[in-house]
Amino acid sequence: MFDLNQLRTFLAVADARHFTAAGAALGISQSTVSQHIRRLEAACGRQLFERDTHTVVLTADGTVLAELARDIVGLSRQAADYFTDSAPRGRVRLGVSDDLTLTRLADLLRDVGRANPTLSVELTVGLTSLLYQKLDAGRLDLVFAKRQPGDDRGTLIHRERLAWLAHRDLALGADEAVPLVLYPNASITSTLAMEALNGARRPWFVACSSETLAGLRAGAQAGLGVMAQSPLLMRAPGSDLVEVDDRAALPPLGEVEFVVLGRSRRLQGAPSALADLIIKKGPGLWA
Fold first, then answer.
1. Which of 36, 81, 148, 240 has its CB surrounded by the most CB atoms within 10 Å?
2. Is the pLDDT of residue 83 over 70?
3. Which GO terms label this protein's molecular function in UniProt (predicted)?
4. What is the β-pairing status of strands 90-97 and 119-126?
């Protein structure tokens, strides 16, 4: 029933609200634009535009067709991309650090599916140090995580200030040893916490440890101690976590950098397409 070229012309007019401007955008004459619209209206049996010498406005039927036409043209483009091998296909093994689950990571993954419907993402969530090990061992294609100290690889996506977090009822004096809630294995945030306290000559001890961020959050929520983590944890549903106040006299923690990196500096194919999307959309995850 519908000719794709006519639908593309129709959408160009709907966006530009001008026949001549739509023709210029498509590289066709104004008379060809008018011809496409007349034929499309004849195929629909409906008037699609209200127009005079100054304005072009969609009718109610035109508004409905515009929404449908975007889907039709979009699906046609996806099909053409698929069968001409221009769309990235295959599986990408993506590793993301535990704390990225606090961000709008689901929105990013949804965008991946929309932009590349033929792309399969195998997601691994875990400690940054373990993700780097898997990447270097060839068990991951791409990592989106904090940058390890001394490692200059990767494209910077976001810098985040770390905070000392604890249950709102936890009281900690300036002279007391700090009860830490941290990962049992080496991690960037745990290392920064211990180095900050050691540098300030502040005594500390491990009050609770867990291999997952959910476990750390539970320990802090229970009032067992203090952890160095993203301020986003305070915004999680049901959170009673707050930043430890100045009376505790805890030293500053500084910032961490989130980067995306692959197994080589020059990515190709599906990993390259996913990395490009992370670079484009990634900064918005913390919004």
1. 36
2. no
3. DNA binding; DNA-binding transcription factor activity
4. parallel
